[in-house]
């Protein structure tokens, strides 16, 4: 249900929505960044820590990733900070749309396969198959966090 509501909100904000002629933000549509993966197919586990720093930044460590097209990755994510954080994996324009929605509706949660929200001290996983080459974003879209530094890049090599 949460995901469905989010989809509607995104559709309302999306400017690229009209071009597709489909219900935008709809789940089950192919995403440029790839698709949910199966753990059995994963060839690499990448550990990512999320936390605030003493000088007021919020960071993913590491924040840049290089993978290969076709690869399934387990992102093993730990919130080592004191606030809730999110790990959202998507193409940059989707991340920015989603960021705008979150700024309007900060309590919104999502349970999409490409995103996870973790309370302080929690750990979780995103298992993802990168089906397209290109550069994609990871981001925490809790309001203010992206602008405090909480984003990174995933480069997918291969045609
Ligand atoms: Cu955050």
UniProtKB/TrEMBL annotation:
Source organism superkingdom: Bacteria
Protein name: Copper oxidase
Signal peptide: 1-19
Domain Blue (type 1) copper: 52-156
Example GO molecular function: copper ion binding
Keywords assigned by UniProt, alphabetized: Copper, Metal-binding, Signal
Record's keyword annotation contains Disulfide bond: no
SUPFAM superfamilies: Cupredoxins
Pfam families, sorted: Copper-bind
InterPro entries: BlueCu_1 (IPR000923), Cu-binding_ET (IPR050845), Cu_oxidase_CS (IPR033138), Cupredoxin (IPR008972)
